[in-house]
Amino acid sequence: MKTIAIIQARISSTRLNSKALLNLSGKPMICHVIERTKAIKGIEAVMLATGKGEKNHPLLDIASQSNIEFFAGPEDNVLERFFLASKDKNCSYIIRVTGDNPLTDFESASMALEYALETNADHAATLGIPLGTGVEVVKKSALQKAYESGHEPHHKEHVTPYIKEHPELFKIVKYQSPLINPYPNLRLTVDTLEDYKLMEIIYNELYHSALIKLKDVIDLIKRKPEIQSINSNIKQRPMTHHANE
């Protein structure tokens, strides 16, 4: 069964505008997300899905330069954006990657995809890894069902809540990562300036052209535990939140 990965990203963001273009080790953050997504085993293609409008053109340019597919759809209805981006693609599964996660764990994503295929799951995610490093593996038919039936604002903004809210309709599985993570509250997404400051430190310490492995990030935190306090006061928005991604 074929799988494609779709990265959602746009320029507008309420808490950290243009975050996808922020510099990390000499590259826009979205470039690192693309590189890491390409490293997921078992995918046929990578696509960047952004919102329509001239302000998002820099993201389309980066996608083109990175030799990946791109799609411009609804700005705020991200569920519809994903559905339309994948509608005509010959695939059975879609891996959802978010553009504000420059430490997306390609290793656990590869294993979660394999587990989803083995179990014929409608939705698969990874347990045991830090916030901001995981992906979601979604069966294309489940995405279509969510698109047709998910009418609440948070269903449209966050793509998969309808699926997760209806375990009676979908086969939902969790892959347990073998990673030993002693920091359950570690936050490795970029949604605020504090998040970005932590990510800058991590990339300055660990990025030397090769993709950073999650284990190396954990080892860095062990050596410098004080850096995790930089964004420890940031509260993660719940799945039911709806505003801007």
First CA to last CA: what distance?
30 Å
Neighbour order of strands in the largest sheet: 5-4-1-6-8-7-9
Q: Structural class given helices, strands, pairing?
A: alpha/beta
Q: What is the average per-residue confidence, as pLDDT, rounded to a whole number?
A: 94
Main sheet characteristics: 7 strands, mixed
User: What proportion of the residues form beta strands (DSSP E)?
Assistant: 15-25%
Q: SSE string, helix = H, strand = E?
A: EEEHEHEHEHEEHHHEHH
- Let me know the number of strands: 9
How large is the count of helical segments?
Answer: 9
Overall outline:
globular
Low-confidence stretches: none
User: CATH-wise, what's the superfamily?
Assistant: Spore Coat Polysaccharide Biosynthesis Protein SpsA, Chain A
Quaternary class: single chain
Number of domains: 1
CATH topology: Spore Coat Polysaccharide Biosynthesis Protein SpsA, Chain A
Which architecture name does CATH use? Alpha-Beta Complex
Radius of gyration: 17 Å
CATH class: Alpha Beta
